[in-house]
Amino acid sequence: MSGQATTLNNDLPELSRLQLSPNWELLRSAMDHFTQFGPHSLSHPNLCLEILVDLTWKYFYSRRGTGTAVSSQADPVMLFLRNHAASRITNLQRFEATVNARTSQPIHVIPPYSMSEFGDEFLHHFVKEMLYRVYPSKSVLSRLDPGQWQEDSISYTYEDLDPRPMIPPTEIDFEQPDLHIRGPSSQFVNFPDMTWLGGQHDGYSLCLSVSGYMNLRYMSGGSRGDDAALWQAAMTFGLLEAIMEIKIPSTYLLFLRPDGSFVLNSRNVSALVLDWRRRLDTACRHNSIAGGRWVARVERVITDVLDALDDEHDIHTRYASGHLSRAGCSDREVANILCVLATICDAVKGMAMGVIRGLVPITDVQQERLFGTWSHQWTVAVLYRQMMQADGWCPTIFSRIHGGSLCLLAYTRAHQPFIRNVPDEHQHCREDHCAVACIDTATYRTRHVTGSCQCTFIRPPMDHILHSLEHGNIPIIVAEPHRGPVTVRLSSDGPYIAISHVWADGLGSTSEDGLPSCQMDRLIKLVQHLLPDSEGAFWIDSLCVPAERAARKRAIILMAQTYQQAEAVLVIDASIIAQCSVNAPLEENLLRIATSSWMSRVWTLQEGILARRLHFVFFDGVVAVEDLQDRDAFQISAGQRSLSFLLTPGIFANRLVHSDPTDLLGTAMGELAGRTTSKSEDETVAIAVFLGVDPAHLLAYDAGKDRMKALLLEVQGIPKTLLFTNDQKLTEPGFRWAPHSLTSTDRPWPYDVDALCTAEGLLTEFDILSFAPVELLEGGISIYNPPMQTHYRLAGCQGALDGEIQFNAILLIDGLPDKHRSKPCAAVHISVISDSGVLSQSDEESLVICEYRTYLEIENRTDAVAFTTRFGLPIRPSPIAGFLTEEVHVLVT
């Protein structure tokens, strides 16, 4: 090793006295690798300067979270750094000037403000980030895993170039690049086109690791653009070849654009993944040992790629640096590339999950890495959301379709949204509220089929409508196109079609006002298509539900019977009609239905679920929901499965109607998430029937809060996760835990019915973390659990605080969160907790009464606290002792 490397190696142990990271020896080994390559433009003293400056700078930020000012003269760590700099760097003024420039303030005046601690990987990240800025030379990265300082990469050998296939060979003919799975447009794995940076892929041996892929193709003296191109190639072709154990020609995935550039396109990735799935399934079923070896390889490759993506995102976000930004990619280009790469990896993980479960034994670590989420998965999802909103999608769509699947988000983003009026019509919408879909009845106007039409309105005979409702009968409209007035008969007199629609499309009205003649003719033709031998009989709220209060209540009470007894329910939605076709791919039609206004409304949930037959009006025909269920398709990705799952009223109607009566609310909550209604008090009425509750009992109350209380008491069996929402709660004694609405999208799974609603409160079991009485402050509360020697932080979410909140316990499901994790909890006050924080129970079966206070989140901060205490710094705020008692019988009031 050169003298330069030896000197550097001697410096590192002095820095290691700070004991900032368990990865120190690994980092020193990586630095040794780094110094083997040259020549470098910067000398060793400059490298030492950069290390010290970054240590100082990061230390400032870690101290800011403590609320204490930092002085380089008094602080022991700062004094060590300063003295070390003085002994190694002659120009101390340069050191301090560089630090001052980084912090934008003198080093002895650092104002305290809230910032979280860095944690155990503090030094690990700092060395990588510093090296990326100081030494952009390819020699730093070429011998290592893509962007990662890992033992696997440092110990890289050319054994990776001697592949030993563990699964059968591919059946794909790469000479036919237009191979498809089922149809000309059918795709299971879909992502936006990604600009290809020019990485050279073809002409090399197969590598079964991404680090081997990168090393084999590295050319010394390359530019920053070459670095980024090679990194991108390793994250795509390198990943797919290592996982699938086949050589993939670049022409199979890269396509030429008119401007002469290339893009990586998703259309053939689906064929690769499908072929891979079949090969894997065969291998794992016939040889579990080979399957286990394959799982180990997949886990390693996926972990390497996800770490590389995390690292690239971190460096780009913090320093506008990284492979892609150094190569000149714009922020939008970086976001697009990271989204595509993450989506490919998400598809691979989803595929592996489908094969491995039940066939191959795996370790807990492999379970977490292959089936768990990764640190920036949500960040990538947010990038997709931002791009979708820029394209005109409503924010509510993101919360409705995310479900943890990047494939599904990518597929959605690849399609244009339905625009009802103007491109920016959703700019005032939120994730939990679509302003466009909600209507104001005071200003609402029923629309004609065309904007220029001025035909007259047709109204049913009101005396017939009112007479039917007064006698508990369902009024049915009978009419023929262009032939005189409509008549009214009873539902029991013959078959009829029930029309399901959303008022935002312009078809809303009342019996008193009626509908335009043009709309009537349109409805009659659609009805006669489904009932060709009938008299054109149908029910629609716009003609059969009066505005008069008493009659409207009677019609609502009969609503469930209306849809249950109909020969079929016909869905008329403007976005579905405009964007769905009988000739379109299944996935696209499912997506359009899943993202339609019809799927976003509370009332339409029961209309779809209670239907004996459900049909949708498409642009070029009427389609039965059964034709949208591809039972024989080979489900290969989380995205495609999620699309099927989203069509809940059709595909899963029987699941709700025939569910265990004691589990109805838990099942329904999953279907209600994200749905809205223009009148909040109607929510409980709209879902009452399929929960086994007579809506008449709820209509006896006018206020939504009274209806919710009555519904919960009628249902009785509910999921205790209802407590863990940051929603508005009821205020009545015994029901302070109950939400105003059941449509929240942030409620944690599962929805199992495991609690009993009574007039006195909610009876169930919870784990309880008890402590001395505290008041919730903006900075949160630090808690130390002595038996487990773990630290936690309690904090309220936005909107959770309402004045002073005092409590002495929190309710948890399945104990405290693991390291680096957080989970929802409920703050309560319990009278039988002593001043020292210990829960007193006469016996294990005794009932503990808990007064609900608010929703909180608890985060495991054990590693962050350990990092702080290594410097001898105080923990802010000072922790209080918390004691965990498991499986306590409670009554939450």
From TrEMBL:
InterPro entries: HET. Pfam families: HET. It comes from the Eukaryota. Residues 496-572 form the Heterokaryon incompatibility domain. This is Heterokaryon incompatibility domain-containing protein. It comes from Moniliophthora roreri.
